[in-house]
Records
---
Amino acid sequence: MKIGYTAGVFDLFHSGHVRLLKNSRSLVDKLIVGVTVDKLVNYKGKNALIPFEQRLEVVSSCRYVDVAIPQYSIDKVDMCIKLKANFLFVGDDWFESDTWKQMESELALHGIKVVYFPYTRNISSTKINKIIDETP
């Protein structure tokens, strides 16, 4: 069985999220999705507009997701190993970054492949949140 993992905040769930999940699920038998808990979002210097429990429910309801779980740590290598994932899926906005080159090397030692999908450039939760913040 091929198992895939991806993770994100999934705040203000949008078509870019759907595309990532759909593309990811098309390559595996089981897709597990980590939804970042509020405490970790805050650690990254951000705030989620939608509370964790609601974001988890939305992601769980997506037909491409087999299991949605809390993401308590930014350590995706450890999570992929724990889940026995064969693939880690991510947007190509991370491709060739030093952080992800290192992560690819670490994952390869465990037989886990990183797959990059085209990032949806015309929409993001960050852009949506910015528009909301700027609205009087």
---
Amino acid sequence: MPIKNRPLGSSLTKSQLQTLQKGTMAYTYRGVETQKNPFDWALYPMLLWSEKPATIIEIGSKSGGSALWMADMMRTFGVPADIHSVDINPVGIGAIPGVTFHRGNARKLSEVFGRSFFHRLARPLLVIEDSDHTAKTTGAVLDFFDPWLRAGEYLVVEDGIVTDMGDADMYQGGPLAAIERFLEKRGDDYEVDEKYCDWFGTNLTWNVNGFLKRIR
């Protein structure tokens, strides 16, 4: 569904979101900081099983918890997947089978992934944008991956929920502003997948209007 036809925010109140955020920020997986909320913790396995991505690119590694969890999940599903996780800071978690950590700036991804990388990667591709949550950085990530995504593949933009929490100004407009600007330019080729955005209720996900599916 186009974003112009969708609600821009979550059906939860600000106080409810803030309560959930306390748990989210403290959440770990196998003892590693992961910071996932319960809605997306449930939604991602369905997306991973449905799409069975052969390559996952995560922008924003933090402590490596999400990459560790996705690698475990894909092995549990019996689906071989190469996971590439990028962060401007080094990740100290150590080696994880199937995961490659890259040092790099989300606004300069051409310095991390060249044309040869995209020509040889296995498909389908899933991209997860979870970097610094500023509109400028999210916009740069969307623009970078746009030429490489194929019809049917997903680009998930995390943490548009900062707008509902009243913190968008801290992130120069936040991910939602970047999504809106991107879809104004490229919206004919993408849709906001309401199946995932609204599974538990309207935008009951931290990825508000952020499950973007390439449709052509």
